[in-house]
Amino acid sequence: MQLTQAQPFPYNFELKSSALVIIDMQRDFIEPGGFGETLGNDVSLLQAIVPACQAVLEAWRRARGLVVHTREAHKADLADCPPAKRNRGNPALRIGDRGAMGRILIAGEPGNQIIAALAPLPGEMAIDKPGKGAFYATGLHELLQQAGITHLLFMGVTTEVCVQTSMREANDRGYDCLLLEDCTESYFPAFKAAAVAMMRAQGAIVGWTATSSHLLPALAALPAQPQHC
Ligand code: C5J
């Protein structure tokens, strides 16, 4: 497959060696009362990308592509949360404190669940990550290697934090990465614009960018895939 309109130049990928990576579309960041809001952000900005993400996820599933969901999540005893992360700044609630959706950024808590519209299906990878990047302390690289994956298409939040960190980690591990611009968002629109621009600058130094309107027709043109029983 080729996304001819990708920037800075066309992006070539095969479905069988590609994964759709959905970064941190969890209630903690997207709904009121979670980590995003405790940091003083307007979470409604992030809600706007959900329909575009849903359309891509459904098309990718129909094509039988590999899906990876991530959650920024810490263990209940905070053993994997460095004090430097927990104590940074002056948030209304810190990681591990009890908020409106349970303990902030703790695995298994209601706020840590991926939003219902994008909830993982049985069999899809769902990775808890203690860092901003999806490859730090997760084993994701090994799982992708076992699955023969060489290309990663990214969606999720927030663009300049966990999405950009994950894409840079993936790029350094040798994956050809593409960011779906209308399927990622930041609490700071200017940061999103800068992150998107810097990733594709200098001849795709981190990776490519495209929109879901480029990807969806390419997926729709694939031959129908057999249903699994
Ligand atoms: C942040 C994330 N922004 N998922 N996490 O702290 O981008």
From TrEMBL:
- Report if keyword Hydrolase is assigned: yes
Q: Which UniProt keywords apply?
A: Hydrolase
Which GO-annotated molecular functions does the record name? hydrolase activity
Q: Which domain of life is it from?
A: Bacteria
Residues covered by the Isochorismatase-like domain: 18-207
Known InterPro entries for this protein?
A: Isochorismatase-like_dom, Isochorismatase-like_hydrls, Isochorismatase-like_sf
Q: Does the keyword Phosphoprotein apply?
A: no
Q: Name one Pfam family in it.
A: Isochorismatase
Matches recorded under Gene3D superfamilies: Isochorismatase-like
What name goes with this protein? Cysteine hydrolase
This protein's species is Polaromonas eurypsychrophila
Taxonomic classification, please?
Bacteria, Pseudomonadati, Pseudomonadota, Betaproteobacteria, Burkholderiales
